[in-house]
Specification:
Length: 102
Amino acid sequence: MADFEMKKRQSVSVFISHLRQSKQLRRFGDIIYVSRRMKYVVIYMDQDQVTSNVQRLKQLGFVKKVVVSPRNQINMNFDETLSKYRLTEEYQEKIKDQSEEK
């Protein structure tokens, strides 16, 4: 039995002119969400196929705009950024005293 291997995936939002064409977008990846009001479809596809699929999507007549999610470029290690905002001991004691008074 083969081991399960996770593939890197990326979200792509495709703005379309009519919702009828949303079914045709299944061949590019997994459709996660369809907005009826704003007429866009969110598709998850393999990260190595994003550039080729985006070019193919832009060539379709019913596609108005294609937006690739920048999530993989964002630093998700929040420990470094939050360490700047730790409370000082003096301020922690002040908060503790105020809560005890109530």
